[in-house]
Design goal:
Radius of gyration: 24 Å
Order of helices and strands: HEEEEHEEEHEEE
Largest sheet: 5 strands, mixed
Number of strands: 10
Distance between the termini: 35 Å
Helix content: 10-25%
Strand content: 25-35%
Length: about 180
Amino acid sequence: MRWLPVLTIALMLPLASCATVPATYLVDTKGPYQLDTGDAVRVTVYGDADLTETYRVDDSGSIAFPLVGTVPVRGQTTKVAAARLAAALSNGYMRNPNVAVEVAEYRPFFIQGEVTNAGQFPYVYGMTVRAAISTAGGFSDTADRNRAVVYRRQGNEMVKGAVDLDFPIYPGDTIVVNERWF
């Protein structure tokens, strides 16, 4: 009877190595929002209603702005984008332009895997993985309902991380809901 605990541990030890923890990679969730292709921004030029309009960030990461042409904004905050537009306008077009930039429409996020409707969906500020799955029609019958994998561009590289369902997502993220194993 004294050997029963030893036998139990000896039989359970090989099974413990079967339970693996998924690899988790750093996915940055802090910092101000950075503009990128697909975002639509509302540019307000105070004192000039003709220039106040919504503009889309194009594939090159620029805004095609009247009078000054293309202004690069990819990777910039709305504050920096406003300063760049003001500097371009002050270069021979306006005296001391006052420009404000705000995000009018975020670029979409993508979801694939074990969801009802995989694809591209509009981003709403403050979304989590759980909200994104709901937007895609919910889980499929075979989905892992505890975690997902998020792919996010950080600078010039793509990072991924196994995350829980309350993890915040950003525009442009790709979420993969894996199949459960049991």
